[in-house]
Amino acid sequence: MANSTNKPVKIGLVGLGKIAVDQHIPAIRANPNLELVAGCSPHARPEGVVGYSDMQAMLAAHPEIEALAICTPPQVRHRIAKEALAAGRHVFLEKPPAATLGEAEALRDFAAERGVTLLASWHSRFAPAVGATRDWIAQRALKSIHVVWKENVRQWHPGQAWIFAPGGMGVFDPGINALSILTRIVGDTVVVKKADLHIPVNCDAPIEVGMDMVTEGGVPVRADFDFLQENLQTWSIFVEAEDGGKLALSMGGTILEIDGKPVMQEPEREYPGLYAHFHELIASGASDADFSPLRIVADAFMLGKRIAAPAYVE
Ligand code: NAP
């Protein structure tokens, strides 16, 4: 069901927490092809947004809403997205697209059946240096890849108890951003071979992960994720080519160095890019639902060794 008029697409937000306020609201407002109509959330009421306590109340008051962005924690995303698709609305899923692969695939099939757009968003893929990294890799045989994603959960996720609950994914919540870049820059399937999942004794999701993967072409990929990193925060991917070339993509994909020399440093503009993509998908009646980063996380949980870590206290 493409939007063939030139009028802005009317959007409703579901879940008005940190990411909705920091990124979705400003990105929608800055895009002339989109119009933020209202939002809903059990408690949060950001200033300047017409608010409701749940999605059905919002849609009853604003039947003109054509598309919904689901910015809740992942555990409730499938139920809400299914209701949104059933109501004939286009859907933008925050990452991760659902709590399980089964839920994500069911949403993709249901969106196709309903003839509406589904975007399984991966914001890190819109970081400025991701395209140049993909091009550099496409021209070379690779020797190895090392992903290092280390941040301080207390700094970036204060009060977000859902993150260590079942389905919250723990350190895979940021780590899946690295995996979304990895699966975009490597034009090959990446499979998990070994994963060490360090899970605090009072939590249900890992706080630290060390993972060995390999591309189907045989390139080893190591990933180290840590949620207790203090001081310097690291969101980097290091690639080594067979010809000796070295690439470093850092600060979440905003800085690119090749053979030790800086070649790109640009400000982060992920959400404006994501919303432009969502609008294009709606205008052309298409969907974009790639679950390969979620599959790697699912495989890590399936294959991983669980190691008890000290209790986590916020
Ligand atoms: P958050 O600050 O905890 O916000 C989540 C919001 O969802 C809360 O405001 C909560 O409501 C609301 N909510 C919970 N259940 C709901 C329901 N049934 N219906 C409607 N709203 C509901 O979390 P966040 O950091 O924004 O993260 C949300 C998602 O965005 C996660 O999947 C995360 O991975 C992703 N994300 C986060 C970041 C980041 O930097 N934080 C970056 C990119 C993507 P109330 O507060 O009203 O109770």
UniProtKB/TrEMBL annotation:
GO MF assignments: nucleotide binding
Domain Gfo/Idh/MocA-like oxidoreductase N-terminal: from-to ranges: 9-118
Any one Pfam family match given in the protein's UniProt record, by short name: GFO_IDH_MocA
SUPFAM superfamilies, sorted: NAD(P)-binding Rossmann-fold domains (SSF51735)
Coiled-coil annotated spans: none
Superkingdom of origin: Bacteria
Classification via PANTHER family: BCDNA.GH03377, DEHYDROGENASE
Protein name, UniProt field: L-arabinose 1-dehydrogenase (NADP+)
Species annotation: Pseudoduganella namucuonensis
